[in-house]
Amino acid sequence: MENKDNVRPPTCDSSVESCKFVGFTRLVDDKETNFASCLPGAGGCYSPAKLLEAEESEMHTAELIKATNEINKILANIPEHPTCGLSILHLKQGTLLAWVEHGQAEIEGGITSESDPELVAKHFNLI
């Protein structure tokens, strides 16, 4: 998505750099709707959504390797979203799978992993 100065904002790929999420609100059909964007930064957003693989060890047993492979297959089989990438967000409350926009410009005043947990819970509709 190009901005008004025709400068493409950076796209974050957490396999090669640290990324952060920023929650924001925009109007969609005259209704305020919550979204999230993944930007280069201090962590919290992992795209593409995938668990890391490791060799078998005392802390990563054969059962965990099998579970990791099964989870990654499930994630890989989720149909693509037309405008967002599937990401893993690490919130203070835990981990959330979410459709996240990439290539957005920095968003001032958005919800981040450092925001008040109540604001984060409200923005992401946590239950």
Keywords:
about 130 residues, 2 helices, alpha+beta, 5 strands
Detailed description of the structure:
The protein is α+β, with helices and mostly antiparallel strands and 127 residues long. The chain is built from two helices and five strands; from the N terminus they run βββαββα. Strands 1-2-5-4-3 form a five-stranded mixed sheet, covered by helices on one side. The longest helix is centred in the middle third of the chain and has 15 residues, at 62-76. It is globular, with a radius of gyration of 16 Å.
Helix content: 10-25%
H/E topology pattern: EEEHEEH
The rounded Rg comes to 16 Å
Task: Tell how many strands the DSSP assignment holds.
Answer: 5
Order of strands across the widest beta sheet? Answer: 1-2-5-4-3
- Which spans have pLDDT < 50 for at least 5 consecutive residues? 1-10
Mean pLDDT score:
86
Shape: globular
The structural class is: alpha+beta
Biggest β-sheet: count, sense, barrel?
5 strands, mixed
Distance between the termini: 32 Å
Specify the number of helices. Answer: 2
Question: What percent strand?
Answer: 25-35%
